[in-house]
Design brief:
Blueprint (H helix, E strand, L loop, with lengths): L2 E4 L12 E4 L1 H16 L5 H10 L1 E2 L6
Antiparallel strand pairs: 1-2, 1-3
C-alpha cells in the first residue's frame, strides 16, 4: 500500500500544502529533503522519526 504525508498536518509559517504519495521509503526520503529545504529543519533521527509517525495509508480515490 502506498503511503502519504501532508504538510498541512504540520502547520508552518509558509502554509505549505505539499502532499507526497508513494512507497514508504520514497515518501520519507522526499519529505526529509522537503523539510530541510523548504522549512529549515535539521536532518537527524528526531526529524525522520517525526516524519515516519506522520505517514498515513493512501486512500484510493474512485475512478
Amino acid at each position: 500500500m502506498r503511503k502519504l504525508i501532508d504538510c498541512r498536518d504540520h502547520p508552518s509559517e509558509t502554509r505549505c500544502s505539499l502532499v507526497l504519495i508513494g512507497e514508504e521509503e520514497e515518501v520519507l526520503r522526499a519529505a526529509t529533503e522537503h523539510a530541510i529545504s523548504a522549512h529549515g529543519r535539521t536532518d537527524g533521527p528526531e526529524l525522520r522519526a517525526q516524519l515516519r509517525r506522520s505517514l498515513r495509508n493512501e486512500t484510493p480515490q474512485p475512478a
